[in-house]
Write a structure and sequence with these properties.
By secondary structure, the chain is of the alpha+beta class. It contains 17 helices and ten strands. Helix 2 runs antiparallel to helix 7, helix 3 packs across helix 7 and helix 4 packs across helix 9.
Length: 490
């Protein structure tokens, strides 16, 4: 039997539900000078009490507190039953710390939602980002107790918890201080999901109360103020129904038989009026572009991952640099001007050229380190080249970008003009005489060479005398005298 296709509305609702059950928080700032209680709220302190009563080593807790206070905990992700973050320790690559917490069952959630719906003060407190003690200490326990927090970490320390997991717990207490809905998310439900469920409960309760009030109201309405709506167990009301006094307006008739204002206002407004076009305020101006692109956080090592963390960091740094360049290059149209076509500063490149661009820009230093050697070997194996070819191409890209890489292997015949005048300029400057061939001016005995580019710049190269092993040597320059003078002085 073919399953029924999921409608677009149902798929969108499913995406929203999944997004509501995952929240990511940027790294919290370091707490400079703060040496008092780490949590500011009573529920944040209760969270830490559950950690401290289970810890087997107070020294690890103290170290974790210091890590958290100094800002060693990076981005935190909270999902039902799980909190994950990377924590920077003494090694270059951070560790992956994790805290697990049992989620509530559906029956427990029903009881908790009924408890919130039964008292509007509790919902008001949650919306004000505070946790009512009566709600936290009710039949359904929200805050963790001793042994409820299960720490894990990728570090070699087997303490429970280690200092990295402890640092994560301390930072989560700060998140709870500002938003108790984070605790409810840990227990299994997102904020939007909870508010929708409470809204549905309140709507059902209001409809039931109104129906019961009209059913029991006297015909003349004069004694309605003394009539009480049956509560739970007295007429089959809903579980969260409240017994309360009904005013004359609740019956739908005001004194004199006129419809109540409340009933008239509950009819809402026509859809035509709600969807009609109306003036909207202009969008705020865009934020200023930062001077430099951001650097992605270092990722922890892990066994069995389907990707290499270093490669992912490498690609993330390049994506940030490309985005920064595109935003910087984007022009803001003036008043009354049309939107101009924008050209990307990163045109499409063949796979080999783009791989060289990535390598050259991600590691802008010219020195060979163990990391760059490994990168060159991997790139050579993937492209069918040698590590020397990769290193030479990276140097050419750093020298002149795509044009520098093109000149590395592709000679061309420049037209008469600047190329011919360059030899006279070099002789007038009392510099070595160079022999022309294609776009090259070469002195093989000295091992020096200038290559003329399509961009009318001169690219210096050098080689061991008597060999043809040419390597880019220094930056390109539009003046051949400057380019050769710098090359001879090396």
């Amino acid at each position: 039997m073919t399953p029924r296709p999921v409608s677009g509305r149902a798929a969108a609702a499913d995406r929203l539900a999944r997004a509501d059950r995952s929240r990511t928080f940027p790294p919290l700032p370091a707490r400079t000078g703060a040496r008092g209680l780490f949590a500011e709220s009573w529920w944040g302190s209760a969270w830490l009490d559950a950690l401290e009563t289970t810890a087997l080593d107070s020294a690890r807790l103290a170290r974790g507190r210091t890590y958290a206070r100094d800002g060693h905990v990076d981005t935190i992700n909270v999902t039902p039953g799980r909190i994950v973050a990377t924590v920077r320790g003494s090694r270059p690559r951070p560790y992956s710390a994790e805290i697990r917490l049992r989620t509530l069952t559906d029956q427990e959630w029903d009881g908790l939602l009924d408890a919130i719906a039964a008292d509007t003060g509790r919902l008001a407190a949650l919306l004000a980002k505070t946790l009512p003690p009566a709600l936290a200490d009710g039949e359904v326990r929200l805050l963790p107790g001793p042994g409820d927090l299960v720490p894990r970490c990728s570090c070699p320390d087997h303490g429970r918890p280690c200092k990295h997991a402890a640092a994560l717990c301390f930072q989560v207490a700060r998140l709870l201080d500002t938003d108790p809905f984070v605790l409810l998310l840990m227990r299994g439900r997102g904020e939007r999901e909870l508010l929708d469920a409470l809204s549905l409960r309140n709507t059902t309760l209001t409809a039931w109360e109104t129906r019961e009030a009209r059913h029991h109201a006297p015909a003349d309405g004069r004694t309605a103020a003394h009539h009480r709506v049956p509560g739970p167990g007295h007429g089959g009301g809903p579980p969260a129904a409240r017994t309360e006094t009904v005013s004359p307006t609740a019956t739908g008739d005001a004194p004199g038989g006129q419809p109540a204002a409340a009933e008239a206002s509950s009819r809402g407004i026509p859809a035509r009026a709600a969807l009609a076009d109306r003036p909207r305020p202009p969008l705020p101006p865009p934020l200023p572009v930062p001077p430099q692109p951001g650097r992605p956080p270092a990722l922890p090592d892990g066994d069995g991952l389907p990707f290499d963390p270093a490669t992912l960091e490498f690609l993330a740094a390049d994506a940030a640099a490309r985005a920064h360049a595109c935003v910087t290059a984007a022009a803001t149209p003036g008043p009354g001007a049309g939107r101009t076509a924008l050209h990307s500063p990163f045109p499409d490149l063949p796979a080999w050229e783009d791989a060289i661009r990535l390598t050259a820009t991600a590691h802008p230093t010219a020195g060979l380190t163990a990391t760059t050697r490994a990168l060159y070997r991997d790139l050579a194996a993937a492209t069918g080249r040698t590590p020397t070819d990769v290193a030479r191409a990276v140097a050419a890209w750093r020298q002149g970008g795509p044009e520098g890489l093109s000149l590395l292997d592709t000679p061309w015949n420049p037209p008469a003009g600047d190329f011919d005048r360059a030899r006279s300029a070099l002789l007038a400057a009392d510099l070595p005489s160079l022999r022309p061939r294609h776009n090259h001016l070469t002195d093989p005995d000295r091992g020096i060479q200038l290559r003329f580019g399509h961009d009318h710049r001169w690219y210096p190269y050098e080689s061991e005398p008597g060999t043809e092993d040419w390597w880019p040597a220094g930056p390109a320059d539009p003046d051949p005298v400057v380019a050769l003078t710098t090359l001879v002085a090396r």
